[in-house]
């Protein structure tokens, strides 16, 4: 598994750590400073790696799903990820 921070920081001026991303997701809010990173997390990171990330940082599947539908989908829909969300 490629690290999440490598993928989300690849073309960003200000890097963000995996831990910070997990804190943002858990808060249920967006952080404008890291908005592009958040979008990259949900669009550029393969679903299996995203699932490993949420397991590593103890983020529930319902929490990540809620975050995606509330903050990401309207800008960057990800059909592969939405298919993952249909499994229980």
Attribute tags:
single chain, about 90 residues, mainly alpha, about 60% helix, globular
Q: What is the number of strand segments?
A: 0
**Helix and strand element order:** HHHHHH
Radius of gyration: 12 Å
Mean pLDDT: 89
Number of helices: 6
Shape: globular
Helix content: 55-70%
Determine the structural class based on helices, strands and strand pairing. mainly alpha
Give the total of domains.
1
Could you name the ranges where pLDDT drops below 50 across 5 or more consecutive residues?
A: none
What about the largest sheet?
none
**Beta-strand content bin:** under 5%
Distance between the termini: 23 Å
Short précis:
The chain has 88 residues and is an all-alpha fold. The chain has helices at 4-9, 18-27, 35-43, 47-56, 61-72, 79-85.
């Amino acid at each position: 598994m490629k690290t999440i921070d490598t993928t989300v920081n690849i073309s960003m001026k200000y890097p963000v750590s995996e831990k910070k991303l997990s804190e943002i997701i858990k808060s249920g809010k967006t952080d404008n400073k890291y908005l592009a990173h958040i979008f990259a997390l949900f669009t550029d990171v393969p679903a299996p790696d995203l699932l490993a990330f949420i397991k590593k940082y103890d983020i529930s599947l319902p929490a990540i799903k809620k975050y995606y539908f509330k903050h990401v989908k309207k800008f960057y829909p990800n059909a592969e990820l939405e298919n993952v969300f249909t499994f229980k």
